[in-house]
């Protein structure tokens, strides 16, 4: 699913595809996508790598930050880093270059790792939500069962599950010959039948997007119901629930829906452009996760001040906590 090419346009690409046949020897046109999308991807990668690396640094270097919840945040940050490294550089080259230039082995490996990291990211988000729900519904029992060893076991299980569930991507990914202003090589998924391809895409939509979204929504609905009476804290947590669910929905929804539409035969130049935007949105999620889950949290903020005191010299040391900090503390600290 990494390949964005004329092959994605299908029979509806119209005059642009016809022109490519006539002008086959002149090379493809230079579109705005060729420089704009790689630039945006590069910015996403820079912000995401710096932010997620800082999250991992402050948790591993500060003993008070080594909590169960923060262990999941580190796992999420690690997943986001791998996702950015595996996705961004290779996808960015597809816009200025008309062909896949990295060979069949990298075609299989890159797409497999993309699926693995996307799967692991979504399952980790779900695990975090289930963990917070468990603490809220069963605060006493959670003291016995929520241990770093249990969090490690769950994290390892997430990665094993993601590695196994993503195997079809490696099996059916291969190089194909195509034509776009001359002979080109595309990295594409080639399934034995259209039915099998649609089945896998539907499975991917459910596993990577819909089921995690339903899990996150259900967990926080139970949490809000358990908290019961209206209060300032309840309203703050409600806002954070909306932000978390909306962020997940907005970032991952467009690309998943575009892929689903393509699986059922809808191919057009408009959908091709929407898919580009969808990729940008899904990659952005790995950059904003550190902001949502860590940088705004009270405990993380204190740890950042200890790790990088010079950065915070311009701010007051004992200023009043921002109004929306309570819900971030709820997410990034132990109960």
UniProtKB/TrEMBL annotation:
Subcellular location(s) of the protein: Cell membrane
GO cellular component: plasma membrane
Residues annotated as domain G-protein coupled receptors family 1 profile: 51-293
TM stretches of this protein: 35-59, 71-92, 112-130, 151-172, 200-222, 242-264
Keywords: Cell membrane, Disulfide bond, G-protein coupled receptor, Glycoprotein, Membrane, Receptor, Transducer, Transmembrane, Transmembrane helix
UniProt cross-references to SUPFAM superfamilies, sorted A to Z: Family A G protein-coupled receptor-like (SSF81321)
Molecular-function annotations in GO: G protein-coupled receptor activity
Record-linked SMART domains: 7TM_GPCR_Srsx
Keyword Membrane: yes
UniProt membrane topology term: Multi-pass membrane protein
Protein name: KISS1 receptor b
Organism: Labrus bergylta
């Amino acid at each position: 699913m990494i390949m964005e090419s004329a092959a994605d346009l299908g029979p509806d690409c119209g005059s642009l595809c016809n022109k490519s046949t006539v002008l086959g020897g002149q090379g493809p046109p230079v579109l705005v996508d060729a420089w704009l999308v790689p630039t945006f991807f590069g910015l996403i990668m820079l912000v995401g790598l710096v932010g997620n690396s800082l999250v991992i640094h402050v948790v591993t270097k500060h003993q008070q930050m080594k909590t169960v919840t923060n262990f999941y945040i580190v796992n999420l940050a690690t997943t986001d880093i791998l996702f950015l490294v595996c996705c961004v550089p290779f996808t960015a080259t597809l816009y200025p270059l008309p062909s896949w230039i990295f060979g069949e082995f990298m075609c299989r490996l890159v797409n497999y790792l993309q699926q693995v990291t996307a799967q692991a990211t979504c399952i980790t988000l779900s695990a975090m939500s289930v963990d917070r729900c468990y603490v809220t519904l069963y605060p006493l029992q959670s003291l016995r069962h929520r241990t770093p060893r249990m969090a490690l076991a769950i994290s390892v299980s997430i990665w094993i599950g993601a590695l196994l569930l993503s195997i079809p991507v490696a099996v059916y990914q291969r190089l194909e010959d195509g034509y776009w202003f001359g002979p080109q090589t595309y990295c594409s998924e080639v399934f034995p039948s259209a039915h099998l391809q649609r089945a896998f895409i539907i499975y991917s939509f459910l596993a990577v997007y819909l089921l995690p979204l339903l899990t996150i929504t259900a967990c926080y609905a139970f949490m809000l119901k358990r908290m019961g009476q209206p209060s300032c804290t309840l309203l703050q947590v409600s806002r954070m629930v909306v932000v978390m669910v909306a962020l997940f929905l907005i970032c991952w929804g467009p690309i998943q829906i575009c892929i689903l539409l393509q699986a059922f035969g809808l191919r057009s130049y408009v959908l091709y452009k929407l898919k580009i935007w969808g990729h940008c949105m899904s990659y952005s999620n790995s950059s904003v996760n550190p902001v949502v889950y860590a940088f705004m949290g009270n405990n993380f903020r204190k740890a950042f001040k200890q790790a990088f005191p010079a950065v915070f010299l311009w701010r007051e040391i004992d200023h009043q906590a921002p109004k929306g900090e309570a819900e971030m503390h709820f997410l990034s600290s132990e109960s």
